[in-house]
Each structure stands twice: as structure tokens, then as C-alpha cells.
Specification:
Blueprint (H helix, E strand, L loop, with lengths): L2 E10 L2 E10 L10 E6 L11 E3 L1 H9 L3 E2 L1 H10 L17 H23 L1
Parallel strand pairs: 1-5
Antiparallel strand pairs: 1-2, 2-3, 3-4
């Protein structure tokens, strides 16, 4: 059975809070889980101690037994010092598309042409 440490959403609309749970990967996000390990409240300030609460002993137990944390939970574990900081994939989401790159090159070429003419005189 593949097991993950992940978030299960609770709370009403626009007022989320999450439970940090150990669940079978085949179960739905808010479905059945094996054990609740902690809570995460994203509405609290980032420096608040109550924002992320985890039972580190149980988290370490599940990690030792092969549970894989999701990306968000892995970040919580990194900030708690349980896991080493991992290199994340840069999916180039902020990089402009081909058309935008081409427009920028044309604009740079147009602005460079008058500067070259002024330098030649």
C-alpha cells in the first residue's frame, strides 16, 4: 500500500483549515485516512506557532515506514528541521512565451537602431 503524508481540507468556503494526515494514495483528498498527525491553518500569520502543528514523533515514524510527504508537507518538515531542503523543479512558469520573447527582441532592435545612428553621427 502506497502511503502519503498530505493535507485534508476542512472548514467552510473561503475559511480553510487543513489536517495533516497519513492516507492511502488511492483515497480521495478529504476521504478516509490512517492517522491524523497535525493541523495547518493558513489564515494565521506566518510567524504564529499555531499555524502548523505536528506530532513530530509520529511523523518520523511514518517517514521511517516509507510514507512520502506531498510538496507542501515536505516544506513544513523542512522548516521544522526534520527533512533536508530539497531542490525544487523550476517549471519556467514565469518565463514569457515565444511571441512575447519575439516582441521584446523586435522592440530592443528598434530602440537600438536610433541609438546606433546617433553614435555614427
Amino acid at each position: 500500500m502506497a502511503v502519503k503524508i498530505r493535507l485534508a481540507r476542512g472548514g467552510s468556503k473561503k475559511r480553510p483549515h487543513y489536517a495533516i494526515v497519513v492516507a492511502d494514495t488511492r483515497k480521495p483528498r478529504d476521504g478516509r485516512f490512517l492517522e491524523k498527525l497535525g493541523t495547518y491553518n493558513p489564515l494565521l500569520p506566518k510567524d504564529s506557532e499555531d499555524r502548523v502543528k505536528m506530532d513530530m514523533e509520529r511523523v518520523q515514524h511514518w517517514l521511517d515506514h516509507g510514507a512520502q510527504p506531498t510538496d507542501r508537507v515536505a516544506r513544513f518538515l523542512e522548516s521544522a528541521g526534520v527533512r533536508d531542503k530539497a531542490d525544487r523543479k523550476n517549471m519556467k512558469k514565469a518565463e514569457p512565451g515565444d511571441k512575447a520573447k519575439k516582441r521584446a527582441e523586435e522592440k530592443a532592435a528598434k530602440s537600438a537602431a536610433p541609438a546606433e545612428e546617433a553614435a555614427a553621427e
